[in-house]
Amino acid sequence: MTENSKITSIVVTDFEENEIYLMAKYKGKNLLLIIYRNQCLGCSGRAIPLAYVLQKEFKDLQVISIHTNFGNTKTTKEEIHSIFTIDELPFPIYIDEKHQVYDQFNSEGTPQWLIINHEGILFRSLFGSQEGAQIRLKYALEALMNFKSNL
């Protein structure tokens, strides 16, 4: 999936293994999706906390985390919760059981950030959690919000 492409479907599961169709569930919203893994230190140490900050900063943005599994690994709700210091999850977290979403967006690794505008268009896809990636992500979000406000 390339930037400026219309996304018709992203299918994940919730913790009860129910299929969730993200594009239908969050239709009409600007989305920031983070594809991550608990085992990725850059994800749990930098990217997830950054997603929390960005959710507070950009009020018209729905942050969604997608934990991707590789091989035969299964991740439990408890394992997902274990990286958070608060009892309640700060944003929705879904599971990408066989890394299908990861593959759908040709992810370079984890964390992979996907910015999808309110029309379902992939606005930006960015990889990483270090300072350079964080700056590019913030600039892209500012551009998206500025573009929407000028419509």
What features would you highlight for this structure?
151 residues; alpha/beta; Glutaredoxin; 5-stranded mixed β-sheet; two-stranded antiparallel sheet; 33% helix; 24% strand; AhpC/TSA; antioxidant activity
Topology at a glance:
Layout: E1 11-13, E2 19-21, H1 22-25, E3 30-36, H2 41-57, E4 61-68, H3 77-81, E5 93-96, H4 100-104, E6 112-116, E7 122-127, H5 131-149
Parallel strand pairs: 3-4, 4-5
Antiparallel strand pairs: 1-2, 3-6, 6-7
Organism: Frigoriflavimonas asaccharolytica
InterPro entries: AhpC/TSA, Thioredoxin-like_sf, Thioredoxin_ResA/DsbE_sf
Domain Alkyl hydroperoxide reductase subunit C/ Thiol specific antioxidant: 10-122
For the residues shown, what is the average pLDDT?
A: 92
Q: How many distinct domains?
A: 1
CATH superfamily: Glutaredoxin
Query: How does the major sheet shape up?
Result: 5 strands, mixed
The low-confidence parts are none
Strand content: 15-25%
Shape label: globular
CATH fold-level topology: Glutaredoxin
Radius of gyration from CA coordinates: 14 Å
Structural classification: alpha/beta
Percent of residues in helices comes to 25-40%
CATH class: Alpha Beta
Side-by-side strand order of the widest sheet:
5-4-3-6-7
Query: How many beta strands in the DSSP annotation?
Result: 7
If helices are DSSP runs of H or I spanning 4 or more residues, what is the number of helices?
5
Q: Can I get a quick summary?
A:
One of its GO terms (molecular function) is oxidoreductase activity. The chain has helices at 22-25, 41-57, 77-81, 100-104, 131-149, and strands at 11-13, 19-21, 30-36, 61-68, 93-96, 112-116, 122-127. By secondary structure, the chain is of the alpha/beta class.
